[in-house]
Structure formats: structure tokens, C-alpha cells
Write a structure and sequence with these properties.
single chain, 716 residues, alpha+beta, seven-stranded antiparallel β-sheet, 14 helices, 23 strands, 42% helix, IC97/Dnai7-like, IC97/Casc1_N, CASC1_C, Dynein axonemal intermediate chain 7
Length: 716
Amino acid sequence: MPGNKKKKISKAERLRQLQEEEERRQKEEEEARLKYEKEEMEKLEIKRIEREKWRQLEAKDLERRNEELEELYLLERCFPEAEKLKRETRLLSQWKHYIQCDGSPDPSVSQEINTFISLWKEETNETFEEVIGKSKLVLNLIDKLKLILLETPPYDLQDKIVTQYQGSILELQELLHCKFNTATEILLRQASTLADLDSGNMEKVIQDENITLYVWANLKKNPRYRSVRFSETQIGFEIPRILATSDIALRLLHTHYDQVTPLRPVPTSLQEHTSTITNLVRDEEKNLEAAISKEMQEECKQEENESNSVHEEEIKVEDQGETEVKMSSVQEEPEVTKCELEMKLISETVLAAQLLLLENAHEKPSDLDDNEVDLCQFTTLGGVYHLDILELPPQCKPMKGWMVVEILKEGLQKYIYPPETTEDFETEYSFPPIEVTLEVHENVIFFEDPMVARWDAEGKHWKTDGISNVSYKSEERLITFNLETFGPVTLIQDSHINMPYQSWELRPLDVNKVLLSVTTIFAEIQIQIKENLCMLASIKVNNKKHSSILEGRWMTPVSFITALKEAGLNIFPTRHSHFYVIINYKVPLTEMKAYRQMALLSSAFAFGWSRWNMLCDSKKVVFKVREHLRKEEPIEDPNWALLMFSGDRAQRLKIDEYSDTFSEALKEETEFHSTLYHMVKDFASEEAMEKIRSSNDQFIDSVGHMLLLTRVLSYS
């Protein structure tokens, strides 16, 4: 039907519609363009305002920079002051030892220690119990010498003193081991009188806090007696037939300390570096003293001329009075200046020493033999097990009411196993490796199964060859392995097993007392620091509380760090550690400044790990900070501020720990400063700042020292 047909659009109407659509499109494009331009202009204006604001902040920071750095310099005088106290303590140590009058020699005095060694060498026929009693004094003397070498900064150590102390340590170690051998020989001469009624062989166990001795003498030579076990324990040996039928004795001397590993040399690079700075400051001191002396002479000359030109008696008397006042003030001035120069000298040397603690070695130790243990990567733990097969000496024989014994001139002799030459070509079957079972020291923590190393006397290093079939029972703390040749063996663990750290936190506990918590993949270690002392507060291994003999014992920082390392709790990187651990490298100068200033603030502020520290520049560090004045337990989700520090500039970040992306944008209504101290001062309470200003010098120094040695900013 005609009514249902669609009305045709005319050509003109179609053109009009197309024109309207084109005009609408152009209008929309124009509006979009104008909107975009407006937005771009607004963005540019915002950026311009931000740049202007940034320039104003930089100008403000520059204006007060010198003032802030001067104030920081005065606050950081605590480090040279603490070093002065430590020097005084070291100087007084000889006097303190003298007034103790306990009869023991002073190990730092060459004449006293040499006399002690000579007199002990003359003592003969000492029993094992007597040697153990004397060994406590000897070990104490060795520990004192090692502590002096560790506690004395390299710039205060002379080469001849280092040589003297290390020589004394080696002499004491060798003499002590020689005494143990002689005492063993005396004990073995009496083996027949100490024989067990059941087995007919002699077995002896002597235990002490530093030493455990296991001795077995083969008197019966029963070929079926192959399993040697001490005192109903699993500790012992599985010996081959040739040993079961020989006149031999087996000795396991477990020294709970390591006196086999060579002493580490004192870092000479540190001595050279710090001595350069010391010489520069000393030159400056001499120049200033010369200038002051010249000035004083000129003042005196001038005053003399003035007094001679005055003829009136009254004026002359007045001028003489003025001269005396000026002379006294000039004489007082050199004393003050000299004191300031002394502090500057100590400050510069301490600064250089702290900086070099953070510098990484450029080359990895490479001159290692095959199977040699790299002592930069591994640590010996639990002492040394001296395993020896000894020739049984002639036995005591009763004769007419006397005990007669033949004493061999050559003394105690080792039984060579396997022999150097043999006509039997089936050596593998005749002289098989000996199975050894040892007990791991109870005060040592192994986070993984320990590795066994043997001492190579010829190469003077630990090696891992000649050892097979190692198995470890962690519950019983027993390790079993096969050993081809006897000699000293030790257990080793990767020194960096607890690195890098997963997180860390430094929190105030009380006046001049903080808690440093370091969480690793295996453990959570909490360390308390107060004044010049440190203590292991607690340790968790695999989220379970672990008891340690070190808990609750306050020690000086150096002694504490040594004790932690010896217990297997090594969280102290060395110059070579970056070769064995993936680290978050930070520029040493920035890192050092951060630790020093964190220590300054540690009385009133808590610091913590931030995930953004991994993403920022290597010239910058990022960490959490918040004021903490109360003694309460840490808050579950505290309100942390994020600070970024480059060594020269500190700023509070706009982002928080839970932001999606990292940004260096400044938090609103905040400024940046030249130091961390002035940065936190912007949002700190007066109580917090007062607490910081009244902090103990030794406490700040100890906190800084612990942060420098744990390196939480680059090893987390």
C-alpha cells in the first residue's frame, strides 16, 4: 500500500544532515582540544608551582645548611668522646692488672709472658688434670691478647706490637698442645693399671668446660673388637682389623676452641688510610700551634713598645695590667685550640675507620688449593677434634714394691695409618677409611647439616677431601663420617647462611637502652644495647624459642660479636661478603652517615626495614621511623613515617609501606633537611628531643658500632 512506503530523503536533506554531523564532530574535536590544552596548561602550572616550591625548599635548606651541619658536628662529638674513653680504658688496663695482684702475667708485657712460658716449659710430669687446670689461665691470656688486637683500632696499633701479640698467642697455643701430648703419654703409660675388667682394654674420659678427652688403649688386641665407644655413648670409632690387633691407642681430644686456624692479619689498608688522615690533621695542628706562637710573640712585642712609649707612672701601671690580662688570655687560647685539634684528630680517624668498615673488597680470594676451605665464605664452629692413632708406650711394671717404666726419649709417637709404604697391593681392603662418630658442641647452632673439614698440616689450611659418607643426626647432635687419615678435623658452616636479612628493627627500651632485632630466613635474633655493653636478649630458630648460653650475659661489643660468631649466629658481614651474598649495595659514605645519625636518635626513635630501600638509588637509603618514648611492647601496626636519606639531604616521603609504586615525592607540608636529626625534629616532641640530647656518649657509639657491623641497610 502506498501509505506503508518510506518517505525518501531528498539529496538536499541528506547533505544538510551530513553537514550537521561534520559540524558536530568538529565542535566535539575543538572542545576536546581545548579541554586537553587546558589540562596540559594546568599540569604545566602544577609542575611550575612544584618546581618553584622545590626551589624555595632548596634555597631554605641551603640557607640553614651550615647551621644544621654545625649542630650535627657538635652532636657527633659523642663518637670521638667515646673513643677517648676507650683509649683511657686501654691505657689503664696494665695498671688495673698490676693492682689485682693475682699472680697471673700481663699478656701485653713481653717480659712477663715470656717468663711465664719459660717457667711452664720447665714443669714436667704434669697429669692431664693438672694441665687442664693450667689451661684455663693460658686460654684466658690468649683471649686477652686477641681482644686487645680486636678492640684496638688499627691506627693505634704498631706493627711490632701486632707481631709481638700474635707471636705470644702462637707460643701459648703450641705449648698448651705440647703439654696435652705429654700428659697423654703419662696417662697411657698407666694404661695396664687402668684396664677395664670386662674388655681388658683401657678407656678414659676427662671432661672440662674447655676440653673433652677420650682415650682408648688397645691392650688385648682382640681382632673381633672393632667398635670403640666411649662411656656408653655413640662417640667413637669403627676400626679395621689391622688396628684391632696392633699396640695402639686412640685419642679424641676435643678442644672447644679453635687454635688451629691461622690468625687473621690486621688490615693494613685501614692503617695506611687512617694514618694519612692522622698526619694531615697533625700537620694542621703544628701549623696552628706555630701561628698561635707567632701571634703571641707579636702581642708581647707590641705591648712592650706601648709600655715604653708611655711616660706617666699611672698610665704605665694600667698598661702593664692590660698586658698581663692579654698575655694570660693568649696563653689560655693555645690550650683551648689544642684541645679542639685533639678532638678533631680523633674525630677524623674514627670517621675514616667507620667508613672503611663499609668498604667492600675489590677482589675475591683466588689463590686456593683444590678442596681448600675458603675461610672468607665458611666458619669453623664447635672447636677442633684432634683425632690421633698413637703408638702405645711401654707400660708401668711392678718390681719389688716399685713401679718401673721405660721412658722413650722421642716421647709420644703417632701410628702412621695408612702406612707410607706397603707390600700389600690390596691397600683399599687392608687400610680402609675409619668410621668416626663425634658429638657436636651443645652451644653451637647449625642451621643446615654441618660440613666436615680436615687440617692439612703441610698447606696450613682446612680441606674437605679424604672425608666421605657424612651423616648428621640433628636430634642427637651426632655426626658420622669416614676418614682416610687421622688428624685435626672441624665442622664448618657457611658464614653467610643468615644473610641477606629479611627485615630489621631498632627500638628504644629505656634510657640509653635499645633493642636491635634482625630477622633472617632461619632465625630472629634480638640484641640489647646499653652504654658500652651488648647482650643477646632472645633467639628464635624456625619460629621456635631457642635457649643459648649467651642469653642474659652483658659483654663489650667486640667480645659480644666474637661470641655470637663462635655460636654460629653470624650476622656481621665482612669486606668479602658481597662475593657470596646478593646485597642491596649502598654507597659507603651514605650508609655510614645514616648509621651514625640513627644512633644519635635511637634513644627516642624506632627505625625499621622498608621494602622501598631495594628500589631507590644506591646513593640513597629508605627506612621507617617513628617516635617511641614508652616502654610498652611494639604496636602491631604502628604509624611509621618513611624517610629517604642521601647523606646530604633527608626528606619525608609521600608514599607509605603499602603504596603500589615507589615515588620520591615529598610529603605534603614537609621540608627537607641536611641531616636526619633536623628532619625528625620537624615532627618530634620536645620530650623526644630532650632525650636525644641527654644520651650517653658510649651508648650512641655502641649502637652506631653495631649498625656499622650488621650493615642492615645493604644486607636486608
